[in-house]
Amino acid sequence: MVISMAAAKVTITLTDEQLDRIRGLVEDGRAASVSGFVQRAVATALDETTAWAVLLSQALTETGGPLTDEERAWADSVLGGHGHGAGTAA
Of the residues 16, 29, 68, 90, which has the fewest C-beta atoms closer than 10 A? Predict the structure, then answer.
């Protein structure tokens, strides 16, 4: 049985150095293709984002619940955050 996922082509911007390094990995056989490398990198980043969200949720549960607006504002000022939500495009 063959299981496939729908895919869409998108345009991304990489530095010349990033692209050269990825192509080097492909040439060395350490990555199947540039597209495959980028797909894996995105999947890894998404998994890490989910894992951090779970970890943060657990930590907040163990330490008194969600941040108050005041605590969130302080954290954003210290960490350079931009308010609620993650993954907003620049």
Answer: 90
